[in-house]
Amino acid sequence: MTKDEVQQLLQQFDQSSLNEFALKDNNFELHFGKQSGAVVKDDATLPPAATNTDTTTIKAPLVGVVYLAAAPEQPVYKKVGDHVAAGEVICVIEAMKMMNEVKSDVSGTVTAILVENEAMVDFHQPLFEIDPES
């Protein structure tokens, strides 16, 4: 199954009313799941509320594990306050043993990192807030 086929399945699943989807074929296994019910978070772990409504949110293009650095001993790609250029890699998401670069859509300043390193992320989950350059 190609990456495009998986992304197509994921988009169809996201738009459906299904809560779970599993596909098994020989050595290939795929499982999607949606969270249901209310999600409760500790206020201490929530990012500060954004006061600028002009920020751009960079969202996860697929389900997987997010890595904020290229390797454990490497520095993170971007920190809050760092400048980012359009097309610049800001993190990677591992899905099915493949590393997928996530690039910024805009140039600007990173105002918030909304995920922890090595956290599981869902499709379209917000990852970063960027204050675009004027």
Automatic annotation (TrEMBL):
Which residue spans adopt a coiled-coil conformation according to this UniProt entry?
A: none
Which SUPFAM superfamilies does the UniProt entry name for this protein? Answer: Single hybrid motif
Biological process GO terms, please?
Answer: fatty acid biosynthetic process
**Is the keyword Lipid metabolism assigned to this protein?**
yes
Q: Which positions fall inside the Lipoyl-binding domain?
A: 55-131
Pfam families given in the database record: Biotin_lipoyl
An example Gene Ontology CC term for this record = acetyl-CoA carboxylase complex
Q: Kindly provide the name given to this protein in its UniProt entry.
A: Biotin carboxyl carrier protein of acetyl-CoA carboxylase
Q: From which lineage does this chain's organism come?
A: Bacteria, Bacillati, Bacillota, Bacilli, Lactobacillales
